[in-house]
Amino acid sequence: MCSFATRLCWASPQTSTRKGNPSLRYASLQRASASVNKAYHVLRQEGFIRLDRRNGAVIFLQEDKHQAIQELRESFQVILAKAVCKNISREEIHGMVDEIFDEYEE
Question: What residues does 22 pair with on adjacent strands?
Answer without folding.
Answer: none
